[in-house]
Amino acid sequence: MLDINKIRADFPILTQKVNGKPLVYFDNGATSQKPQVVIDAISKYYQEINANIHRGVHTLSQLATDAYELSRGKIQDHINAEFTHEVLFTSGTTFGINLVANGFASILKPGDEVLVSSLEHHSNIVPWQMLCEKTGATLKVIPMNDNGELIMEAFDKLLSDKTKIVTVNHISNALGTVNPIKYMIDKAHEFGAAVLIDGAQAVPHVKPDVQALDCDFYVFSGHKMCGPTGIGILYGKEAWLNKLPPYQGGGEMIKEVTFEKTTYAELPHKFEAGTPNIAGGIVLGAAVDYMNSIGFENIQKQELELLEYGTQRLLEIEGLKIYGTAATKTSVISFNIEGIHPYDIGTIIDKLGIAVRTGHHCAQPIMNYFKIPGTIRASFSFYNTKEEIDAMVEAIKRAKTMLS
Ligand code: PMP
């Protein structure tokens, strides 16, 4: 059982008042708040070991390199990657997806197919569209049903020998649906297709086991799992990372440079051109340690309770409709109130200290499916409480009275 008060004390921002009211932070899907250990780890790096890595013989450079590589090892353990060099530091999920999509430009031929799901964030749609434009491949979309669940019978039918890569999120940011990724990975592999999993919304809630999943790529951002912005991970199977060409050229990623020809460094450096986000990489390790110290079983239990309580309390409000009612869901509730624009509710409840996201959540195709401009999204983290949900429900009721 989590001691919520003790956990909340780890997050200095949660004691703040916003617009004169205690902050209720329900925009965890956009980014999580940061515990003091993570904030301290950032200062500690700059105060004690700041230096460029992998190149200096001097002590600070070695200390920084060791800390950075130690963190890579922590993340390898966390996601159960077979090799440390399969764990690449990136600036975030978006960068990781673009890196892979760019690499597939050297593999795809006209007539090949890329399968994306209808539940994707724009960052897992647009890079694949750009790839298809470049290569003459075709983008195919796995449809969903009214509950916001991907339709597996349709997925099975879309797969063929033409399918070269399937790309799907582990958990949907807009609706909270947990997708049947293990089934999808195994099925895609029957056709020889690679599978990329966008884990941006999964890593705050689950510990992914990339070997058990057998996915070819798994990408995520540090800032959604208590880490800093500007750092993320691309896990790729060694064979795939060796097959894909480098994404960016520059320092760090080379073996030898002459004007005639450059040879590339071994993994992971082949994909890590330039001075990386050293502090971010090191601090992501601290964030992973923090989340493991809370424990993912505890995190899931707390969040499931919040999801159930939040769903039940919100449905008390007349005219409120929840989008995304999948059988397996994480702690995200996307909803609208009949006759009221989501933006208006979001703006009023912000004045009451409640932070939610309103809009299309970078998932316009999902909004188009439901024929709505957007939703109000409350996304809960393990440090949220039922009392905060009560405060949100009261604030929404007040906003509704004002707007009707
Ligand atoms: N995919 C999903 C499912 C997301 O929720 C997000 C962030 N909202 C992204 C990708 C993009 O992540 P980032 O902006 O950190 O690159």
Describe what this molecule looks like in 3D.
- It is an enzyme of class 2 (transferase).
- This protein is an alpha/beta fold and 404 residues long.
- It folds into 2 domains: 4-30 and 295-403, Aspartate Aminotransferase, domain 1; 39-292, Type I PLP-dependent aspartate aminotransferase-like (Major domain) (Aspartate Aminotransferase, domain 2), CATH 3.40.640.
- It has helices at 4-9, 36-49, 59-79, 93-104, 126-135, 152-158, 181-190, 210-213, 238-243, 278-294, 296-314, 342-351, 364-370, 386-403, and strands at residues 17-18, 21-22, 24-25, 87-90, 113-117, 138-142, 163-169, 194-198, 217-221, 232-236, 254-257, 262-264, 320-323, 332-337, 354-355, 357-359, 375-379.
- A 7-stranded mixed β-sheet has the order 4-10-9-8-7-5-6, sandwiched between helices.
- Helix 3 (59-79) packs across helix 10 (278-294) and helix 4 packs parallel to helix 5 (126-135).
- The protein binds 4'-deoxy-4'-aminopyridoxal-5'-phosphate.
- 4'-deoxy-4'-aminopyridoxal-5'-phosphate (PMP) is lined by residues 92-94, 121, 123-124, 169, 173, 198, 200-201, 221, 362.
